[in-house]
Sequence to fold (257 residues):
Amino acid sequence: MTPRNFLIRGLLAGLVSGILTFAVAYVAGEPSIERAIAVEQHDASDHHADGTLTHVHDEDGTVVSRQNQSTWGLLTATVATGVALGGITALAAAYALGRLGRLRPGQSTALVAGLGFVSVALVPFLKYPATPPAVGNADTIGDRTTQYFVMVAISVLAMVGAVLLARALLARLGTYTAVLIGAGTYLAVVILAGYLMPTVNEIGAFPGDTLWYFRRGSIITLATLWGVIGIALTGLIGKLYAAKSAAQARRDLAASL
Fold:
């Protein structure tokens, strides 16, 4: 049960997750992105008095077709993200091994993946949900990006602190009370942070149904990415632990003869 064994399985789980996430993102997210781009192109057009439109095209830089963006580009992004998150989750699970009470390796891996989804993806999304093209002021994109990553950092640090707190209280207060205090501490920190962090309201006249479908597709995609990593990595680590345990049992039996 070495970090290397965890990492290899994490990268494999991330690869599988990236491929499946591409399929989900293509089905659940691309239609709303197409509608958002249509809105953006319409808003960028010049309106004449006679009602005709003159479209403004930006020819600077490398032009990538929407077909490539929504297929090979999307696949590259989901696979790269999946492999990276799978490796990071696996290393975190390797570090957590034996440090989360009496949980078996597969159980602690599943817990790490679940906590990762909540702290890295879900909570920051609830404060700063994804926005499609044509939403948001281009002049504030730097500030909005910074605010999002600050929220991610706060959420992750709060989760680490909550886990350490629950672990410290485990022996004295028992599992139920320790977990309850840890979860309550995490919720208090992220709720306070969400209240104090700036609110972004730059939707304007963008169609509400398109925004809803885009954000629904985004959270489904995130859940798929993390869910497949958690399920695949938990299964792989569980099989590794079973194989190592069986080998150790055979060695113990041979030594006792």
Summary: Helices lie at 3-28, 30-43, 66-96, 105-127, 141-173, 175-196, 208-256. The radius of gyration is 23 Å. Confidence is low (pLDDT under 50) at residues 46-50, 52-59. The first helix runs from residue 3 to 28.
